[in-house]
Amino acid sequence: MSSVWRIIEEYFDGHPNKKRVARLLLKYGLKVTDGARVKCGDIEVPHAKIARALNVDERIVKKTAVMILKTPELREVFKRLEPTFCLKHAGKHLGYGVVEIETEPRTIGILAKIASKIAERGINIVQVVAEDPELNPEGKLTIITEKPIPGDLVNEISKLEGVKKVIIY
């Protein structure tokens, strides 16, 4: 388990809703700033909106943010988070290839193997999003390419050790 997850488990042990809030903040790259404010980049996100998304009381969100700020290990992570755009759903409409690959969690070198297969075909990778297995136990990789990936390459990728499933969008 990565150190941020160990710290979250340690500090939010016995507080499942606060842990859910912390996980959501990490998942979306929402940072916690002075005054227990939550921000997406420079845009403040109201605690009430986060609470509604998780179906928890708004006070839980504020208490989580305060706890993060009071805990040096958490504060140093959460004050530096940034949101990242992902072309997964828009890529197809821009003419890109979009492939989602479910892998065995923590398979070492799987991204390099897949990227090599794509590069061998002269296809440029525009974006890669590798989800943290702690947030998404399926171990998903989303790869956006400058053009759609041909079917025979999809078959090659699906046969790589550690690849469980390949989805083309």
What is the CA–CA distance across the termini? 31 Å
Basic shape: elongated
Task: Encode the helix/strand succession as letters.
Answer: HHEEEHHHEHEEHE
CATH architecture annotation of the largest domain = 2-Layer Sandwich
Query: In which order are the strands of the major sheet placed?
Result: 5-6-4-7
CATH level-1 class of the largest domain: Alpha Beta
Question: Strand portion, in percent?
Answer: 15-25%
The fold-level CATH name of the largest domain is Alpha-Beta Plaits
Alpha-carbon Rg, integer: 19 Å
Number of domains as seen in the coordinates:
2
Instruction: Give a quick account of the main beta sheet: strands, pairing sense, barrel closure.
Output: 4 strands, antiparallel
Describe the structure in your own words.
The structure is a single chain. The chain is α+β, with helices and mostly antiparallel strands and 169 residues long. It folds into two domains: 3-78, no CATH class; 91-168, Alpha-Beta Plaits (2-Layer Sandwich), CATH 3.30.70.260. Helices cover 41% and strands 20% of the residues. It contains seven helices and seven strands. A hairpin with a 2-residue loop joins strand 2 (37-40) and strand 3. The chain is elongated. It starts with a helix and ends with a strand.
